[in-house]
Hints:
rod-shaped, mainly alpha
Amino acid sequence: MFLPGLLQIVVWNEMAAFVVVLLMFVANALSCRDAIAVKQAQVDKLYASLKDLAGDRRLKLDEVLKLYMLNRDIEDLEQWIAEREVVAGSHELGQDFEHVTVGDVFQCWYW
């Protein structure tokens, strides 16, 4: 009978040790939870800041795109005007009747 009683004590001691380890783990987990919550708040704040910066960058890029498109349209119009100036400034009278008709002259002015 002595061995089962001793075995019971050993089992209870192991269970008590396990409970102590479990309580330490829970306490550690709770402190880690607080640290994780702090880190999560920092990450959320950094993400919000990054999102604001990305929005600002997007607005600037949209403005640059509009400016680029305007400059491209201006260059196209300048080229078109230069081509029309060559036709308008020409002193050539034409070689035959088709070259000097009013309809043919105005057709070259349209895009």
